[in-house]
TrEMBL record:
Family: Belongs to the DegT/DnrJ/EryC1 family.
Location of N6-(pyridoxal phosphate)lysine modifications: 185
KW Transferase (keyword) present: yes
Keyword entries, A-Z: Aminotransferase, Pyridoxal phosphate, Transferase
Active site: 185 (proton acceptor)
Organism: Salipaludibacillus agaradhaerens
Protein name: DegT/DnrJ/EryC1/StrS family aminotransferase
Gene Ontology BP annotations: polysaccharide biosynthetic process
Entries under PANTHER family matching the protein: 3-OXO-GLUCOSE-6-PHOSPHATE:GLUTAMATE AMINOTRANSFERASE (PTHR30244:SF36), TRANSAMINASE (PTHR30244)
Gene Ontology MF term list: pyridoxal phosphate binding; transaminase activity
Pfam families xrefs: DegT_DnrJ_EryC1
InterPro entries assigned: DegT/StrS_aminotransferase (IPR000653), PyrdxlP-dep_Trfase (IPR015424), PyrdxlP-dep_Trfase_major (IPR015421), PyrdxlP-dep_Trfase_small (IPR015422)
Length: 368
C-alpha cells in the first residue's frame, strides 16, 4: 500500500537527534515552560519575522486563546471559511461568538474576498482566513476589507508552516496567526502542540497569561484562563524538526510539481492551482473529480491510499443546524466537499511510489 503519509519514515530520519534531545530534557529536570519552549518561540518568531511567539498545547487552543485575548465572545461574529477542519469554527463557538461562513474561491479553495465582504455586519469582530492545504489565502484583499471595517485578522496557518504570500511568511500576514504541531501537519511533533505568532506585544502578554490559568505572577490570577502549554519534550522535538522543515517543504513542492506535470492533462481530473503570489507547501495534495467515489475506489483497489478533506462543509454540520444554513448556500465549498480527494504526499515518498500513484490514477480514469 502506498500510504497518504508515513510519519514513521519521517521521524526515523531524525530519531537519533530526537533521542539525544529527549535525554537532555529528562536530565534538565524541567518539563514545563523551560528553556526549550523559550528557544522554540524565539526561533519561530525570528523565522517568521514577527515580534512574539507563544507556544500552547495545540492548534485549536491557539485559536481559542487568540479569540479570547482579543475579547471576542458572546454577541460577536467572526467570518471564516466553511471549507476547513472543524477546529477553525469550533474555536469561534467555544469563546461564545458566532461563526459566519463565506464561500471559497474555486481555484485556490481559500476564502473568497468577494463573498467575505457581504457577510460583514456591525457584530463582526474578526476574520479567520485559513491557508488551506498549505497555500496562503488572498491576503491583500482580505487585509483591505479588514481595514475598511476595522476587524482583526487571525490567520489559521495550521497547515502552512513555511508557506509564503508575496514573499512574506504565513504567520506574518495578519494581526496574529495560529499554528498546529499535530503529527500529520507539515511541521509536527510526536503528539500535540500549537503556537500563536504576532507582533502585538499586548496580545502576546495576554496569551502568556491565558495559557497558565490567567496568571501573570504565580498563584495570583487576573482572569479565568486555561491550562494550555507546550511541553518541553515537544519543544525539544520541534527544535529538531525545525532544522528539517525547509528540506521537507522542498520535497513536498517537488513531488507536487511532478504530480501536476504528470496529471494536468488527464481528462476528468483537476490538479491543484498554485497562485503566482504564493509558495504552496502542500500539507496535502488534492485532486478533484466529479466521479470521486469511483476514482478513489479504483485507487484503493490498486493499493493507493486516498483521503477526503473535507467530506462535509462546516455550515452543513449537524452541530451548526441552528445557524440556519442550507444546502446550496455556499455552492463552491459544497462542490469541493463532493469532488476533492487527497493522494499520497509526504517528504519521504519515493519516486517509485509516486510513479505507482500516477500510473494508478491514469488507469482509474481510463476505466470510468
Ligand atoms: C489541524 C488544524 C487545526 C487544529 O489543530 P490541532 O493542533 O489539531 O488542535 C485547526 N485548523 C486547521 C486548518 C487545521 O488543519
Amino acid at each position: 500500500m502506498v500510504s497518504l503519509i508515513d510519519l514513521k519514515r519521517q521521524f526515523n530520519t531524525i530519531k537519533t537527534d530526537i533521542l539525544a534531545e529527549v535525554e537532555k530534557v529528562i536530565e534538565s529536570g524541567h518539563y514545563i515552560l523551560g528553556t526549550h519552549v523559550k528557544k522554540l518561540e524565539e526561533e519561530v518568531a525570528e523565522r517568521l519575522q514577527v515580534e512574539e511567539a507563544v507556544a500552547v498545547a495545540n492548534g485549536t487552543d491557539a485559536l481559542v486563546l487568540t479569540l479570547e485575548a482579543y475579547g471576542i465572545g458572546s454577541g460577536d461574529e467572526v467570518v471564516t471559511t466553511p471549507f476547513t477542519f472543524f477546529a477553525t469554527a469550533e474555536a469561534i463557538t467555544r469563546v461564545g461568538a458566532t461563526p459566519v461562513f463565506a464561500d471559497v474561491d474555486e481555484k485556490t479553495y481559500n476564502l473568497n474576498p468577494e463573498c467575505l465582504e457581504s457577510k460583514i455586519t456591525s457584530a463582526t469582530k474578526a476574520i479567520i482566513p485559513v491557508h488551506l492545504f498549505g497555500q496562503p489565502a488572498n491576503m491583500d484583499k482580505i487585509n483591505e476589507i479588514a481595514q475598511k471595517y476595522n476587524l482583526y485578522i487571525i490567520e489559521d496557518a495550521c497547515q502552512a508552516f513555511g508557506a509564503t504570500y508575496k514573499q512574506r511568511q504565513a504567520g506574518h500576514l495578519g494581526d496574529a496567526a495560529c499554528f498546529s504541531f499535530f503529527p500529520t501537519k507539515n511541521l509536527g511533533t510526536l503528539g500535540d502542540g500549537g503556537m500563536i505568532v504576532t507582533s502585538d506585544k499586548r496580545l502576546a502578554n495576554q496569551l502568556r497569561t491565558l495559557r497558565v490559568h490567567g496568571s501573570s505572577k504565580k498563584y495570583f490570577h487576573d482572569r479565568i484562563g486555561y491550562n494550555s502549554r507546550l511541553d518541553e519534550l515537544h519543544a525539544a522535538i520541534l527544535l529538531v524538526c525545525l532544522q528539517k522543515i525547509d528540506e521537507w517543504n522542498a520535497n513536498r513542492i517537488s513531488l507536487a510539481e511532478k504530480y501536476t506535470a504528470s496529471l494536468r492533462h488527464v481528462k476528468g481530473i483537476t490538479v491543484p492551482f498554485v497562485s503566482e503570489e504564493c509558495k504552496h507547501v502542500f500539507h496535502l495534495y488534492c485532486l478533484a473529480s466529479p466521479k470521486r467515489d469511483d476514482v478513489t475506489a479504483f485507487l484503493n483497489k490498486d493499493q493507493i491510499a486516498t483521503g477526503i478533506y473535507y467530506p462535509r462543509c462546516l455550515h452543513l454540520q449537524e452541530v451548526y443546524q441552528h445557524l440556519g444554513y442550507k444546502k446550496g448556500d455556499l455552492p463552491v465549498a459544497e462542490t469541493l466537499s463532493e469532488e476533492l480527494f487527497a493522494i499520497p504526499m509526504h517528504p519521504y515518498l519515493t519516486s517509485n511510489e509516486q510513479n505507482q500513484v500516477i500510473k494508478a490514477i491514469k488507469k482509474a480514469v481510463n476505466k470510468l
